[in-house]
From TrEMBL:
Record's keyword terms, sorted: Chaperone, Coiled coil
Family: Belongs to the prefoldin subunit beta family.
Membrane keyword on record: no
Short name of one Pfam family: Prefoldin_2
PANTHER family, A to Z: PREFOLDIN SUBUNIT 6 (PTHR21431:SF0)
Coiled-coil stretches noted in the UniProt entry, renumbered to this chain: 68-102
Name this polypeptide is given: Prefoldin subunit 6
Entries under InterPro entries matching the protein: PFD_beta-like, Prefoldin
């Protein structure tokens, strides 16, 4: 029974993490779209702590692209993890069903002897 509860907890944490990553991806896609509207005559600033620091447009675009690549990779990793957890959960259900059937058969045999 502990294995089944652990699996539910794992699924819940993984779904939550994936949702957070999807939110980050959406935010970064908005930033990418906004950066794509700019040209070299525009000034781009990056927030570092409480300070805005001037940043090169191409550098900003590259940073956002790398961030999106990382986030999308993590989303894929969580999707694979969730599929694996789903398979494990299905296997646990099958084992539990089999054990329940064996238990019911054993109860029937005992009842027949009494």
């Amino acid at each position: 029974m502990d294995l089944l509860l652990l699996s539910v907890s794992d699924v819940s944490m993984s779904v939550s993490a994936r949702q957070k990553l999807e939110t980050q991806a959406a935010e970064n896609n908005i930033v990418k779209e906004e950066l794509d509207l700019l040209d070299s005559s525009n000034t781009v600033f990056k927030l570092i702590g409480p300070v805005l620091v001037k940043q090169d447009l191409d550098e900003a675009k590259a940073t956002v692209a790398k961030r999106l690549e990382y986030i999308n990779g993590e989303i894929q990793r969580y999707e694979t993890l969730l599929k694996d957890l789903e398979k494990k959960s299905e296997h646990q259900r099958e084992v539990l069903t089999s054990l329940q059937q064996d238990f019911q058969k054993a109860q029937g045999l005992i009842a027949g002897k009494v």
